[in-house]
Description:
By secondary structure, the chain is of the alpha/beta class.
Amino acid sequence: MNIQTIYKEKLQSAEEAVQIVKDGDWVDYSETCSYPQALDAALAARSGELHDVKIRNAISMIPIHTVEKDPYGSFTYNLWHCSALDRKYIDQGRAYHSPMMFRHNGTYYRKGYAPVNVAMVTVAPMDENGNFSYGLTNCTMQEILDAAEHVVVEVNPTMPTIAGLANDHISIYDVDAVVECNLPIPTVKSPAATDTDRKIASYIFPYITSGSTLQLGIGGIPNSIGSMIAESDVKDLGMHTELMSDGYLDLYRAGKITNAKKKLNRGKGVFSICNGSRELYDFLDHNNAVLSAPMSYVNSPAVIRELDDFISINSCIAVDLYGQVSSESAGLRQISGTGGQVDFITGAMEADHGRAFLAIHATYTDKAGVLHSNILPYFNGGDIITTPRTQAPNIVTEYGIASLPGKTTWQRAEALIAIAHPDFREELIASAEKQKIWRQSNKR
């Protein structure tokens, strides 16, 4: 029997394919761009018929049918990591966060901590050898599919085909059903940089030199750094990142990323998940200069340390005077997730010339127009500590950089207060004195 015949035999409508789901099942959508739009809509249509079906996903990019069209409460939506849409779902009590560290995410599936009855994931069209590329989501896809009792693939012609270091495809022989969907893969627009973002970026930029390998988060600060690099003499940069966004596309187009000096995977940019513009997806399609890889590889500190001249730039929500960092909640409100922040901070510290930066605006303004400091005396509002003080790296605000590794408590307090908004510094000093982490000879 040839491959095309097998494909046709397994081809079903979305409505037929979701009949495989039964009461109490765990259904996994993998993450971000692997979200199966047609299958999710068909599954939502079974609301009231099914009971206690648990769904896993991460970084939802468009509205989720089984969340928004579930009048009978048949489905429970669970998230490894949160987008702005996911924050809304959690705020409304319609979704729940699953704490995790990205380099261990696949292990949860492999060791049975995260059971999967049915995996439903979007893939690229089948090639002549009967293989479906995972496209934009390598991440923990293989571990999910290996753990699954049943696998349904949603074939989408707008999903790019991307080669990987490992775990980049599934064979037609290993799927239970095939569903076709022509809805465009979701895209996301990069946020515009603010003047504050550009100021923060200006402090980090001098640490980026020709031949450095970059891990950039999403947002205005990485975009600002990209613009500075594009206009500079820096060249031959490398890419090794958990999430590839349009900031990297701009650097590739400017000829700044060549991966020519990387000590690992030379000549190849490496990522684990991707979301961004349609232009980014088209750039990646059959592009031999870029490889996807499992999160267990990309985020492994043992791998990162081999890259040597490694620069990690991410963001956070708040920092206290001890150097504890919250990057995933504002008080008790879930904002994002641990993700790979600690992974890259650890790897950058172990790399011979590695550096990690956590960027944060010095203040925020609440809905009543009141200004608050993002540098706090200590956490006491239920904030989730993402990066412990023992691993706190370089903290950057629009007022400068506080380098925390190896520093005593009084040195940390002094360095962090120096990059706080001037209006809050005296108040922070007073708190530091009460907390016994301020010397009388500290700079004021």
